[in-house]
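Input.
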Amino acid sequence: MSGEEHLGEDLAAYVGLAEPLAPERFDRHTRHLETCAECRLAVRETQELSLALDATPLAPSADFDRKLFERLDAIDASARIESRREWWQSLLRPSRIALALGPVAAGLLWFLASRPRATDEPLPADSSSALAALDDLELGANLELYGDLDAAEYLDVAEDLDLLLAEEGEAG
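Output.
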């Protein structure tokens, strides 16, 4: 070629498929087409392809949306399953299990070490508070009997309860 260049990137614009060319550039390509059979063939094929595409209906089928969303849902579901699997696998790594079991074991040991131990030793002689607690338990067992008394709400529990228990002891 004698200093002239082929249409190249300007081909689509020359046939009207892109933004129009500047008039001087369009005229230069037109003069080039008079001498270049290769570019004339490219222009003719591009025009034919454009006409064929314009004549082809590009409307999607009636169930296109349904099929598209089914495929997208399947992809989404598979990604969710994979994500859960990866989460569980990362959670069940030995290092993470050991890290979680450490505080649990320490808490269990602390609980076992700090709880009171049951013994068969008799109560010490100065255990008046323990005996008072036993008396309270006996009172709790007999509360049902006192629930029916209308006067129970007026009793001073600390003083009058001893009288009631003494009367029960005399009657029994």
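The chain has seven helices and no strands.
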